[in-house]
Amino acid sequence: xxxxxxxxxxxxxxxxxxxxxxxxxxxxxxxxxxxxxxxxxxxxxxxxxxxxxxxxxxxxxxxxxxxxxxxxxxxxxxxxxxxxxxxxxxxxxxxxxxxxxxxxxxxxxxxxxxxxxxxxxxxxxxxxxxxxxx
Length: 134
Fold this sequence. Notes:
This protein is an all-beta fold.
């Protein structure tokens, strides 16, 4: 005599408050203290310049989820999204506080400031985690 065994799997979704909430990925301003050192061809410190500057940063949260799966080896399908820059822009910053190796402030023209190029987020969005193909 044969008997038929039927397995029924019920998957219920329970959502946390963070899964229901909106994405908050945004571009925000942040103040940083930037320090740049300049060396001669022999590797000796020539001057140190610094300045407090405002730069953009990406901050916030994105919707991610984990759900049961019979297809994946782990038994769970994970979809993770991270707040990252959608593109970067290049800016030139002028540092105006420059000092010699002894800590004496430089006042001579062309030595009392330094231009530094940096790249900062121009806009931030949610991207699939680990996706660097953009």
